[in-house]
Every structure is written in C-alpha cells, then in structure tokens.
Hints:
The protein is about 75% helix and about 0% strand. The chain contains five helices and no strands. Helix 3 packs across helix 5 (about 75-110). By secondary structure, the protein is mainly α. It has one domain (about 1-30, about 55-110). Keywords: Membrane, Transmembrane, Transmembrane helix. This is DUF2752 domain-containing protein. Pfam families: DUF2752. It comes from Pontibacter aquaedesilientis.
Amino acid sequence: MIHHARLLRTNGFLEAVCWVVAIVLLALMNPMETHLFSLCPWSWVTDARCPGCGLGHSIAFLFRGEWRASWEAHILGLPALLILGRRIFSLLWLCRTQIRNQLTNNHHAKRF
C-alpha cells in the first residue's frame, strides 16, 4: 500500500513538473520567430493545420500580455493555460495530501 501511494505521488509530481517546465518554455519562447521543428505529428505528415496549431504561440503571446495576438494565434490559448494550471494545482494538492496522510499513518503506527 505504501509503495503504491509512493508511486502515485511520484508520478503525479513528475507530471506536474513536466507541465510546469513546458509552460515555462512556452513563456520563454519568442512566438514571432519561425520554429525549426514541430512536435506535432500531424504537421510531419501533412501541410494542413491541425486543430492545435498555434496553441503554443497563443500561450507565449499571453505571457507577453499580447491578448489580441494570442486570440489570433488560437482562440483556446487562455482556456488551455487555465486548464493546465488547474491540472498542476490538482496534482500538487494530491501529492501534498498523500504525503500528509502517509506521515499521519506513520505517526499513528509508531504510537502503537
């Protein structure tokens, strides 16, 4: 049981760290420059825009306070950023709760 909780906590924390790093990289990205490569498999196969095209640029524009450019890059940039923020918060809260429960259980186990 403790191993399972530790695994959940580790995976949740790792996911939260990955999302934070991704958002920081988007914040540091210059959305006005052309990019050398894309992480989108759709763009590797076709020249057509996928539904997610421009989302990273939209988030980068948001961090610069360029609301109109963000909207024009992708209308779901702000909702995506809010959803990712909520996900990060939820993962970290879950890790905190699991650590607190484990410490409480260990404390009670030592008393008996």
